Task: structure prediction
Amino acid sequence: MIYLDNASTTKVQTSVVKAMEKYFTQEYGNPSSPHEMGERARKAVEDARKQIAREIGARPWEIIFTSGASESNNLAILGLPPKKVIISSIEHSSVYEPARRMKSAVEIPVDKDGIIDLKKLEKEIDRSSMVSVIHAHNEIGVLQDIRKIGMICRKKGVLFHTDAVQSFGKEPIQVKNIGVDLLSASAHKIGGPKGIGFLYIREGLDITPLIYGGGQEKGLRSGTENVPGIVGFAEALARVKKINRNKVKELREFFMEKLESIGGKINGSRSYRIYNNIHVSLPLDAEKLVIYLSQKGIMCSTGSACESKNDKRSLVSIGLNEKEIRGALRFTLNEDITKKDIDYVIRTIDKFKR
Result:
């Protein structure tokens, strides 16, 4: 099998499973319990929190564990209800939908490469605003300049949240240096388990919980902590840092050239792009092709697994026409992909076209 849907989810790595197993079968204490098993579970959670905080230059107590990035995105927006939420026109649905609930959401357009219009963003900001812009896009893979956005937000004195689900652990992020006040991430995008994520909340922000109960996670996310998931998240982060990103990027470029040679049009910026993403429009029916490729042992997608089939906001925003949208495919690579795999994918697509 050739798995090219790593933006949807990733294989849980062996070292992650091994790290988690101990907290399922041996150290299964509740972190809130006062006995020794509980204390050891609590230490495991706090050690993982410190490791994850270091990755983004945060302090451990600024990391709040959640069930995943969708919850984190909702908490960031609904927990700090500003009078106006400013988002890009290509935000993930877990930002777009809560922003729409605010009834004062403003969408800033992107250009044909998927890059947000910073002049329009700055013009739209007022003191009652909050800005939320995705870092690496979940479909077209485009990287926004969150440092520049953070500088604009600091100058204007408003809060800045970024959905870093596709970039956390893969791209360098230092929240203090780039002016990010809130940041969302998820473990299952980097070889960790599903059902665990975090929200970075800059110290000093007064955020209202979405979930009430036992007061865990500083009272911001009640519920017994997912100890195995948290430990697995930290282990996945340690492992993903060892990936040779340049090697994956070189294979990505090779793959893009091959796709262009059979009539593909690459969507989104070539220069500002997460290293393992390809979004391409081919002159065919992409949904039928995905099924055909699956039958041939190739796993890819027509877009984000979290979006409905009819939600093509991002593709419309970058100016794709109906034919290009109908033929749009996303391939997201991992370190196991080879040139031989890519050649097989290209041959298989070529056979489908005939």
Observations:
- The chain has 13 helices and twelve strands.
- The chain has a mean pLDDT of 96.
- The longest strand covers residues 84-88.
